[in-house]
Amino acid sequence: MGQTPSTPQPDTTIQVIGGGLSRTGTASLSTALAILLEGPVYHGGTQITLGPPTEMPRWNHLLRTWLRSDADQTLSLLHSLTTGYVAITDAPASHLVPELLTLYPDAKVVVTVRDPQAWSQSIDTATSVVAPWFMWAVLLPLPGMRHFMAFISLVKAQWARVYDCETQDKAWIYQRHLEWLREVVPVDRLVVFDVRDGWEPLCRGLGKEVPKDMPFPKINDSKAIERAAAHYIRKGLMRWAMILGVLVLGTAWCFRTRI
């Protein structure tokens, strides 16, 4: 979150895969990569929630296919979703790194890191925004977003598969994710990066020159998540009000015609 959706460009291919967990600076990294690579970046949180309403169902289809261990179909769907972008970051792509490396073997994998305790608190805050039991009902009338709760469940299943566990211990998950990346990414293709360090380590890892007279983008998207949640809750409630209004008027009209 924290950005606007990107538009894919023809003859553009993935050069960087973001392996960092959500809430580790993926929005800042995405903006930085768009500058360095001069092309559109697919930031999962932004594209899936703010992009075309078809995007979330496409990811749900891909994740179900991946969970069935249908490797060929998974790669085909993933290629379709990533075509036209220079990089992809954030969930759920951050847990599809092996598949993305199969499609783009020359790509570098950048894993954004932060203090594990701060990450755990940030994840808890972001999760609480979408946790209310009534959320699925509120989002039901909205194209695209009506699939959000299914998407969340599929991402949880994805995490359980990658980490081979059902634990909710976020400190363990954070460390296990870094271990997993070191297991699946060749050492010469893995770049570990803290967005607080700015341009130099990122550019060094990617073999790019540091942009002149341009500060490193620092995007805090926690407020953007809250704004997006409030927006969709308000929009969903308005849509329900319209639906109920039509039903009431229709019922009243039918009743009057029978008198």
TrEMBL record:
<keyword id="KW-0812">Transmembrane</keyword>
<dbReference type="Pfam" id="PF17784">
    <property type="entry name" value="Sulfotransfer_4"/>
</dbReference>
<dbReference type="InterPro" id="IPR040632">
    <property type="entry name" value="Sulfotransfer_4"/>
</dbReference>
<dbReference type="InterPro" id="IPR027417">
    <property type="entry name" value="P-loop_NTPase"/>
</dbReference>
<feature type="transmembrane region" description="Helical">
    <location>
        <begin position="237"/>
        <end position="255"/>
    </location>
</feature>
<keyword id="KW-1133">Transmembrane helix</keyword>
<keyword id="KW-0472">Membrane</keyword>
<protein>
    <submittedName>
        <fullName>Putative NAD dependent epimerase/dehydratase</fullName>
    </submittedName>
</protein>
